[in-house]
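TL;DR need structure tokens for one chain.
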Amino acid sequence: MHELSIVAALIELCEDSAREQNATKIGEIYTKIGVLSGIDKEQFRLCFESFKQGTMCENATLFMQDEPLCGECACGFCGELDGRSFYCPKCKANTLKITAGEEFYLMRLVME
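>> reply
TL;DR here they are.
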């Protein structure tokens, strides 16, 4: 379960950011999770709820937004993919470059 290590890193990043801004509490955490990031959102939420105890994030609400899979092709296609095929929907080539959907981002913090 790599979600636990990701949550630990997220909370550490949030706390570091809060300290830099002289905040004492974190109220909301907004994330973006790529559909191919390998993160199980339910496991991630459970890990977060457990791991946040005793941290600046203890009373924080976690918001998770899905990031769709996107790619671009030499034929000029640039857009969202259905996630079931890595062939270009325009020219059917298998040389797509994935441009989004594999990452995890901390998008925004609401601090006090």
